[in-house]
Amino acid sequence: MTSSIRMLLALAAVTTATATVPALSSAFTAGTVTAIAPDDALNIRKWPGANSRIIDAYLLNEPISLTGRCKNIVTNVSFRIDGSGSASWKYARMKRANVWCQVMTNDAELGWARGKYIWPE
Predict the structure, then answer these.
(1) 12: Cβ–Cβ under 8 A, 6 or more apart, which residues?
(2) Could you tell me the pTM of the whole model?
(3) Number of H helices, E strands in the chain
(4) Which residues contact 109 (CB under 8 A, 6 or more apart)?
């Protein structure tokens, strides 16, 4: 091997060894239960719809994990809220009529809740 090839391989090895690894990020977006009565609970349902089986419930101001996926069940249009944008901008989309957002319960079960009852962080 020529010295220039050895030099390039050595430089590539050093660069690879010293490259920074990006921090791992969560696959979930934090949220807080909002806009329900203090003596009520937000039902988490198996599927997006008021007639779906209830799998869990969260109290007012309780933290909740969002997957970032929301869906209008009338138009069948899905959208993401886990990208950039302020919490107010995300909530404006989530609180629209017929919008349900996918959540992860504390028991690690995926479910759905009405978007208007979750404030995204």
Answers:
(1) none
(2) 0.76
(3) 2, 8
(4) 55, 56
